[in-house]
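FW: tagging you since you asked about this chain on Friday. Here's the raw sequence from the shared folder, copied in full. Didn't touch anything.
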Amino acid sequence: MARPPRFESRPPQPDDVPNRSLEAESDLPIVAIRSNGLHPFVYRKMTIGPTGRARPRDGDLVRVVDRDGLPLGFGLWNARSQINVRMLAPGIEPPGEEFWRSRIARAIALRHDMLGLPAITNAYRLIHAEADGLSGLIVDKFDDVLSVEIFSLGMYQRIGPILNLLLEMTGTKHFRVHVDERIAMAEDFPGRPVASPKLPPRVTIEENGVRFRVQFEGSHKTGFFCDQRENRKRVSEFTPGKSVLDVCCYTGGFGVYALKRGEAREVTCVDLDEKAIATARDNANANQVRANLVHSDAFGYLRQMGVNGKEFGVVVLDPPKLIPGRLDIASGKRKYFDMNVLALNVVEPGGLLLTCSCSGLLPPEEFVILLRAAARRAGRSVQVLATTGAASDHPVGLEALEGAYLKAVWLRVNERTTPASESDELIPREEQGDDEE
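HL: got it, structure written out here
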């Protein structure tokens, strides 16, 4: 594989960036596990425990063996997490800096050489955690900024040297590092956010000829959802001359595409987050288009449009993660169900509903079953045109199929039929989730 070009200039690192070495120590601690699974996560219940004299500290690189002491590979250890080991590499040779450089080079080659993303956008996912062999690390590139999200203590401890490699190999100038509070609690580490000294407060990105402002302060995740890039482009093919409703619009991605590329007649963007609505307005202005921007709860707005008899030719429903954990499965499914019933009621006959779920704990087949139930409750005849997922810079590793978190179901909504009674059991109980999981 050809190595990406090196760039000699590198921004100074702030003093508070964790800088644990990427080089392996000579005498690594050993951890035994119960079975040789292929998944990069080794949960606590699968761990027999450290063996030998060297006791691992949280975040240490450890040698992993099976119950008979046969070598399986290497991973990052955290006794305080439910995921005790995040596997990095198989084999018997411990991964050093060259391993990290090779993994990063492989990830860059996918985006640059195979997908050709720099030709169509200056914003894309550079490293996608387990799918790129770097469990616990997400990196998005927004023009000259690397926006990093970390899910593991071991990655956080090494983020300084990792960033040095990324900056060198991509030619970017700035970075920011974000750790979600929920993840920091699960991994039991402080995870302070850090940024390069001259990080700009925002950057302008462009994809498929559409411009967006990425505001870093107070943003969700890495600042912009690159995973919907291909779906945004595709939905604009359905919008010429149509009235479009973009529900849970965040910063207006689908709506702005519909106006800029899709020649929509009118677009209404709805979100409960005032800052998101302000950014959506900024994005519309950046593309010299005008959208109707509504600061409202999605449920309340859809319910009111249904009462008013308002219909749209294209409706996009892209809510935030409604099932953040296993204890939220049942309540999250009910929210998806209710929201889709309301959305189906405001699609004009023959119109399109693009409905999405980013909840990894909701399997694709269960989401479609839920949508079938919602169509029955709404009294709409529906055809599934396609089911898509995240853009191709968000690959899925065969060893971690739950990485296919994003589900986008394209529905043609036809004539109205008799709605099912509210007393009908539309979602079988075994498909509703279990709060005790």
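FW: Residues 97-114 form the longest helix (18 residues).
HL: agreed, and Residues 30-90 form a domain with the Archaeosine Trna-guanine Transglycosylase; Chain: A, domain 4 fold (CATH 2.30.130.10).
FW: great, closing this out.
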